[in-house]
């Protein structure tokens, strides 16, 4: 069975006011002192901005184990943050105004100089899912076949309706901010591993990006692991939603790999259409219509989510994840994702500080 790992970025906030706090160095130092095996890479890593911290789970075969790992590491992050004088929130953007400070390091300095305000304002938190593949050739075949389904994952995870103290009109405004990077977004078909690596090399050769790790495709081959890395999701307010996204990503990878082995060609939707589907998912989330991944026409969110579940049904059934995925999707459609939770708190209280406080509680539940 394919293994799955998740990387989540969390926002560090003041436990009283909800304002983002630039304390990542202190949090990471406390986490490092608690590491039991210095030979293993740390679970926690610094991010572009000092108001953020990132963690990575171990790879898992069982989705229940992955969900438990996410919950446990979120709790550990919260403990380290408390000792540093802040707390953690699974917020894809800060509802409150923030002046981000860029972390120290050659890479981040290069980005700040190269991209200017886009770097300074890029304080957004995402969820990245890694799924194991047998080779680069299989991985690229997967990338070519999962492209039209990725906006649906974004809609499920949407968790960023507020930006710098304002209602944005989007369910995932993080997505709009993220696309300021020159290499971000959906891709054309690569056709082969050779085509993929040639594309990446050509992009690096322009000097616009520093290296292959700065190729921010919606889905890419990992530069570190033998995995496909899917990068479209907001950090999810609830750990269960993060586990759902990971489950669906593995289902997509397995379904696409089987289709490749069977000689089935990928859908040939243009990047122009994929960008429109992407915009619609970021705007509407689960609250309105999405662009159907097959027909590229508007359809109710419930129908599009149902189409995704139907597409990966065999893979999820084989891994034992189908019923849990169906139940989780039904719950999101009924009760809403993080964006809906945030808006409901704001409608009830009129306070973005209460929105942050509520999300802190959801994050650590």
UniProtKB/TrEMBL annotation:
Keyword ATP-binding: yes
SUPFAM superfamilies xref list: Glutamine synthetase/guanido kinase (SSF55931)
Catalysis performed (reactions): L-cysteine + L-glutamate + ATP = gamma-L-glutamyl-L-cysteine + ADP + phosphate + H(+)
Documented EC number(s): 6.3.2.2
Signal peptide residue numbers: none
Any one Gene Ontology molecular-function term assigned to this protein's record: ligase activity
Keywords for the protein's UniProt record, in alphabetical order: ATP-binding, Ligase, Nucleotide-binding
Tree of life domain: Bacteria
Broad EC category: ligase
Family under the similarity heading: Belongs to the glutamate--cysteine ligase type 2 family. YbdK subfamily.
Annotated function: ATP-dependent carboxylate-amine ligase which exhibits weak glutamate--cysteine ligase activity.
Protein's recorded name: Putative glutamate--cysteine ligase 2
Organism: Streptomyces vulcanius
